[in-house]
Write a structure and sequence with these properties.
The protein is of the alpha/beta class. Helix content is 25%, strand content 23%. The longest helix has 12 residues.
Length: 256
């Protein structure tokens, strides 16, 4: 397979959908190894509700923690982005990646202050990576430029980063006929955070097929959580037993 791929690249050079460079080592077709490696992954969540977690940069030298978007931080910070999971400590493995380990006698993950004060409509949310740079470009190319081949690496990213932290018992991923938009709304990107919930309120309706099910809603980006929260509300109204959210990317420092 490797020889065949190399031969095809020699005759028909393959270029990255984002930077238009050759794919090279570490490639996740149609993303080159460098663009794939430049995506800032999110570590295991320290809030089990909204999924807030610490960013981890993956480079060709090995993954390492990022402190508030700055590379090279050697340990978690003491507040905001960079907190380790409650009940876990951070240690560096041989590859240089910061991993979390359980701490004996400390309680497991709890809701963050935001989720405690204003619980979201969904039961839990998980995101794979930070919405910036190469990942933002890849999502835009997939959504607005018709580069459908990017679905595979974007899907792989969500699965690789999030599958271990999803709640057990998922019975279905939302299907087109299960959740429908019932009224037009303004583009959320045009609105400030405070107006987004109002904009989508009552905009979705769920089929009764969701009744009694644990449903996972899959989307591209979690920003303020307004749209996904309204989707979850509709699924609840339809009788869903549990509603989870899985997104490829997450905008950091946005209220959920």
């Amino acid at each position: 397979m490797g020889f065949t791929l190399a031969a095809l690249d020699l005759v028909f050079p393959a270029f990255c959908s984002i930077c238009e460079g050759t794919l090279g080592a570490g490639r996740r077709d149609p993303l080159c190894g460098r663009c794939w490696g430049a995506i800032t992954r999110l570590a295991a969540p320290w809030c089990h509700v909204c999924g807030a977690s610490s960013p981890t940069a993956v480079t060709f030298d090995g993954p390492h923690r990022v402190e508030h978007g700055r590379e090279g931080a050697a340990a978690p910070t003491t507040g905001g982005v960079g907190l380790p999971s409650p009940g876990r400590s951070s240690e560096s493995c041989d590859s240089g990646e910061w991993v979390t380990q359980p701490v004996e006698g400390v309680a497991p993950s709890r809701p963050c202050s935001t989720c405690t004060a204003d619980p979201p409509q969904y039961d839990y949310a998980r995101s794979a990576a930070v919405y910036e740079g190469a990942l933002r470009e890849a999502l835009h190319a997939f959504k607005f430029s018709g580069k459908r081949a990017l679905a595979r690496p974007l899907g792989d990213l969500a699965i690789e980063q999030c599958v271990a932290s999803l709640l057990a018992g998922i019975e279905a991923v939302t299907r087109p006929r299960w959740l429908a938009r019932v009224r037009a709304t303004r583009p959320q990107s045009d609105l400030p955070a405070a107006e987004r919930r109002v904009n989508v309120r009552g905009a979705f309706q769920a089929s009764r097929a969701v009744a009694g099910r644990h449903v996972l809603v899959v989307d591209d980006v979690l920003t303020t959580g307004a749209t996904l929260g309204e989707c979850a509300r509709a699924l609840r109204d339809g009788g869903a037993r549990c509603v989870g959210v899985l997104t490829v990317a997450r905008v950091l420092h946005a209220a959920v």
